Amino acid sequence: MPTDVYYTTNPSDYAKLPGLYITERNPPGQIRGEDLGTVGFVDRCVRGPSRPITITSNGRFTEIFGGRARPGAPGTLLGEVWKGLLNKKFGTIVVRRVVPADAVLATKNLSNVVPTVIVRVDATSKGAWGNDVQVAVEAATNADATMFDLVVTYGGETRRYINLNTATGFDNLAEVIGDDDANWVVVTKMADGRPLNSAAASLASGANGTAVASDFQTPLAEMRDEPGVDVVLIPSKFPTPATVNGYIVTAASVVSDRMFYTWSADETNAVADDVTDVAAQITTRSDRIVWAFNPTYTVDPETGTETLQGAHVWLASLASQLDVDVHLGCAEAGPLLAGIKRLYNPALSRADMISLQAAGVSVLERLPGEFRFRNAVTTHLDAGKTEIARRRMADYLLLSASQRLRYYVKAKNNPTVRGAMIAELTAYSADLKASERIIEAFQIESETVNTDAGRAAGTEKLLWRVKMIGHILALVLETEMGTTVEIREAA
Known about the structure:
This protein has 491 residues and is α/β, with parallel strands linked by helices.
């Protein structure tokens, strides 16, 4: 390239030397809509890590967390998250497995002839599932007598890790076996040498433990902070509901980008019981907490029997599938609830539903030919903050705009930069209004909300006023019918 042509973005370079200076400017920015369909599940699984894991397919979920129960033991359901996913549609989910404090890791030592323990084989996570894992030591694939193959079997599947080397000065266990979340075992070198060849034998001493309320506290806190999660829920009938729902209240009080869906965790609750429970357990009401009523039955495909779960799981499924400006009780939601077989309370009266709505409870009901939520409300009782749709639309606008506007922080505060911010926000709002999504009308103000003193101190304000598109919650058909009614036709 000629030396008299110079590419730069620094204007101070221009006066340093005669020549051609090329400054490439960034094209106008654009605000992109955020995806608010990711659901975070906090509950027990057959196996898996005890940290949030993003799951994008059914196969990957089963590979990491297992399915309904331990292989060959369909009578004992352990996979509460698996159950929560049953017969529903979800997009991307994030799973944080709850592991009881008294759960135990399955393990097995592999020794040499002395005997000295050469390697220890542990299940990758706590639980009785690890007792189903079998390991065998065989001759190395490369025929090196100082090495060995480890054959691991679980659930009818076999994995062979070849040419493992734990001789003096060597340890390739982590390199060969890896650390994928779907691995069954972790193998640790304990001493130099090679374990004796051995037939397949099971790991031992793994135990599931018994879940108590405190086991949910840390997982909920982790899901509260996990990036990209929009709805958090515990799908099962969790222990000591008042305590666990207290954890949810605490978590919801410090977030600004997600919602928590919950229930009484007691399917026998009558309407009056739920009204009492929501008031007692949601001690600080919030438009980020949703309480749903009317437990459901769906069919477990592995046993052919009905299984029960709270209505809040179905509501979360709808939130993952419907746009933020779509009411979760609308006609579009009906087909997404086709997995429900029946309701625990098949016939709720009008008075029942009025009582529940007044208490900030979303109610699932049976309509002719389908199931539908009569309302979709938050636990907040103040006018203007009761509708789930309002909270979802506001989050969509704020999160989408913030992802773009954050790049202007520490930019030069001059008319060009201020104009660019306003232009991007205006274009984004206008596009939504034109497509009849979320925004009915909007106004953006800058000069009227800023002062010279504020700008001198480094503060720039934008006032974004939005009138959101509402929903027809009460459709009134007035009639006048009779033999004395006069009908006048227009001329």
